[in-house]
Specification:
Layout lengths: L8 H10 L19 E4 L14 E4 L1 H7 L4 E3 L6 E3 L8 H4 E3 L6 E3 L2 H10 L4 H12 L13
Antiparallel strand pairs: 1-2, 3-4, 5-6
Length: 148
């Protein structure tokens, strides 16, 4: 985003509500984080993306920092490059599921696996936070699938 440019509070609120206050990548709940989630540009501004509702996703700091301006990642299963998950055109449940331990995200598709790999969605710290949230009943999100 150009220096000094800010999104309107109304647009930021709309993005948050649309995402159900979850990071649209790792499904962390914003309410329990120490920092406010960011407005992630799906198509980076440097690549012609705009600050519009259709090009914004709610992202936790860790996912946003790792995604940066990436649009592709490597599927660890096939070793091939795939586009990253795009919450405006993809459904989270089609690409991801929680492992039976409920702290690891499992990629169901090459897009899901490439995104998990690129964003390091199963890094140790993320799993520790999810385990703590699981212990107090605020993880995983009720709408997400869990492997049995």
């Amino acid at each position: 985003m150009p220096k000094g440019f800010k999104l309107s509070p109304q647009l930021r609120d709309t993005v948050r509500k649309r995402a159900n206050y979850l990071c649209e990548y790792c499904h962390a709940l914003e309410a329990w984080q120490y920092v406010e989630f960011t407005m992630e540009h799906l198509t980076p501004l440097a690549d012609g993306g705009e600050s519009t509702l259709d090009n914004l996703a709610l992202a936790c700091f860790a996912c946003n920092r790792r995604k940066w301006d990436r649009r592709v990642g490597i599927d660890a299963e096939t070793g091939k490059e795939y586009r990253l998950f795009n919450p405006r055109i993809d459904n989270w449940r089609d690409h991801f599921v929680w492992a039976s331990n409920k702290v690891e995200i499992v990629g169901l598709t090459p897009i899901g696996r490439a995104t998990i790999n690129a964003l390091e969605m199963n890094r140790d710290r993320a799993k520790q936070i999810r385990a703590a949230d699981l212990d107090v009943g605020r993880h995983p999100p009720p709408s997400d699938k869990v492997l049995e």
